[in-house]
Design brief:
By secondary structure, this protein is α/β, with parallel strands linked by helices. The protein has a single domain, classed as Metal-dependent hydrolases (TIM Barrel, Alpha-Beta Barrel), CATH 3.20.20.140. Strands 1, 2, 3, 4, 5, 14, 15, 16 and 17 form a nine-stranded mixed β-sheet that branches. It has an eight-stranded parallel β-sheet with strand order 6-7-8-9-10-11-12-13. Strand 7, helix 2 and strand 8 form a beta-alpha-beta unit. Helix 3 packs across helix 4 and helix 7 packs parallel to helix 8. It is globular.
């Protein structure tokens, strides 16, 4: 790591696109200048002519080296973060799981030990499964967790008995949670899922192709709306992986009301924009087992209903919910009830997202961006994730003083996604055969070149735990948000 000048690229931020040079001094950005305005004799120069220069992508919903107590992904932090770097992801915010009987500190320290080989930086959320029933002790423990650099927790309205939290537990947790923390929710009504599954089993429909029917969209919508209604005043929620139009439009309605002193934010994942229920009818339905499942679109190829809500800034973040399970686990038994759920996606997030956001949408598609779509792309992949989880402006922006996390993206080539060219371990990609526009040319993490022209230069352990600052709702909305 020394000095680097990225010359002649088009630098993209949430508020502007400019032709500029990016100056990197050590681990930080020294400045953004007019092309050719600054010369350093000791700098390495990278010519980005014809390319976009983005902040490093931040994926705030990943499951690297995941152990659910039932299933384990086949990757580790070396494999997962190397794949991320090839895809232009320079920071992930993953999860530490508090298993029964563990303190938050024990769970966090165990996870941090696993993270040590990381090539890129990382933050952590905490999966809460064993919070004290004493309100004062619960509040004290959550405040201590925030002070350890983990300002976000996760709760589940499904997955009995491992992770499931009933309404009383959710309310207890939210009341105890400091107002400068953010509660994340996996929203599916467990009773609705159990009933749908029971009916399918009675009909002998347990194969992979029936997975989508086992977790209907109404289960997600009901749970998401319920969480918003349960939010106490001045407490804040983040709904993960919104998968259906039903959920998204219900949440849009709540945002319009302007009656809450609490705040709530929504994320979807790239798979819900480009994959749909037809994938369960194909030759490899096991590749698409995940929770929530894929949904039916009104339009072919792209879920324009969800995508349009990015233009309105209803949905704030685009992520992956990355889980790198092996084909052996996916194919062990043709039974959706016992198949590991989750898709690999870190390496393909940026190419797929760029292809969506840079496309020339016709008016009939109802996608209206207030400004340039690529500026919105930087919002949902970089700036918003950083703001929501306490990493901004250290991360998520190209500005003097910020970490030198930079991606040079070449928009020219058309690339067909093939597993043989990726760096995950599972042995498949759900996006096999899809064509994307452009590719990552260079990935830089805190001033260190990790990937350049297809070659990897990363060093294990370069990645650092980045503590999240306390949540600040006033700083987490886009200034141009229409609601």
């Amino acid at each position: 790591m020394s000095r680097i000048i990225i010359r002649n690229g088009q630098v993209i931020s949430p508020w502007q696109k400019i032709q500029a040079d990016v100056l990197i001094d050590g681990e930080t950005i020294a400045g953004i200048t007019a092309p050719g305005a600054v010369t350093w004799d000791d700098a390495r120069e990278i010519d980005a002519t014809g390319c976009y220069v983005f902040p490093g992508v931040i994926d705030v919903h990943t499951h690297i080296q995941l152990d659910t107590g039932v299933y384990k992904t086949d990757d580790n932090w070396e494999i997962g973060t190397k794949s991320a770097a090839y895809g232009g992801v320079t920071t992930v915010v993953d999860f530490a799981t508090q298993f029964k009987g563990q303190t938050f500190e024990q769970a966090l320290n165990h996870r941090l030990e696993e993270c040590k080989p990381a090539y890129i930086d990382y933050g952590l959320h905490m999966m809460v499964t064993d919070l004290s029933r004493d309100p004062a002790k619960a509040a004290q423990d959550l405040a201590a967790l925030r002070d350890m650099g983990v300002p976000s927790i996760k709760l589940y309205t499904t997955y009995k008995p491992n992770y499931y939290a009933d309404d009383a537990t959710i309310l207890h947790t939210l009341r105890a949670m400091p107002s400068d923390m953010l509660a994340m929710f996996h929203c599916e009504n467990d009773d609705i899922v159990a009933d749908a599954t029971r009916r399918l089993v009675e009909e002998g429909k347990i194969g992979w192709r029936y997975h989508g029917e086992s977790r209907p969209a109404i289960a997600e919508k009901e749970a998401a709306v319920r969480i918003i209604n349960l939010l106490p005043p001045e407490k804040h929620a983040y709904i993960v992986h919104c998968s259906s139009q039903q959920t998204a439009f219900a949440l849009e309605h709540y945002l319009r009301l302007h009656i809450f002193s609490s705040s709530f934010y929504f994320e979807t994942c790239i798979q819900y924009l480009v994959l749909d229920v037809q994938n369960y009818e194909g030759s490899h339905p096991e590749h698409f087992i995940l929770q929530p499942p894929l949904r039916e679109f009104r339009k072919e190829r792209i879920n324009y209903d969800l995508l349009s809500l990015y233009g309105k800034r209803v949905i704030s973040v685009l992520s992956t919910d990355h889980c790198d399970y092996s084909l052996a686990k996916k194919q062990a038994k043709n039974d959706f009830r016992v198949t590991a759920g989750g898709l690999p996606g870190l390496e393909t997030l940026l190419p797929l997202s760029y292809t969506l956001f840079s496309d020339q949408y016709e008016e009939e598609h109802l996608v209206y961006f207030e400004s340039d779509p690529l500026m919105h792309l930087v919002e949902v992949l970089c700036a918003n994730p950083a703001k929501l989880f306490g990493l901004y402006p250290k991360k998520g922006i190209l500005a003097a003083g910020s970490d030198a996390d930079v991606v040079i993206y070449d928009p020219a080539p058309q690339v067909v996604i093939k597993q043989e060219n990726l760096h995950t371990i599972g042995g498949y990609t759900p996006y096999e055969g899809m064509t994307v526009q452009g590719k990552v040319r260079t990935t830089i993490s805190r001033g260190r070149i990790l990937v350049h022209e297809g070659k990897f230069f990363g060093e294990q352990g370069h990645g650092q735990f980045i503590k999240g600052a306390p949540f600040k709702p006033s700083e987490s909305r886009s200034e141009k948000r229409i609601y």
